[in-house]
Design a protein that fits this description.
Strand content: under 5%
Radius of gyration: 25 Å
Number of strands: 0
Largest sheet: none
Helix content: over 70%
Structural class: mainly alpha
Number of helices: 1
Distance between the termini: 87 Å
Length: 58
């Protein structure tokens, strides 16, 4: 039979580990979203530069 101290000693680290994995997962997801946003921004900047270069007559 497990007393309440043993139950807390077993459960608490498992909850902490689950929390760490959740934070790592959210961090990886945020990194992926940031990379997608950066790629879209670079593409938009390239289109803007190309549009401005076409408009200039040198």
């Amino acid at each position: 039979m497990m007393n309440s101290t043993t139950t807390v000693a077993v459960t608490l680290p498992l909850l902490y580990m689950l929390g760490y994995f959740a934070i790592i997962g959210v961090g990886i997801y945020a990194l992926i979203l940031f990379i997608k946003l950066a790629r879209r921004g670079i593409r938009a900047l390239d289109m803007y530069i190309a549009e401005k270069e076409d408009g200039q007559s040198v």
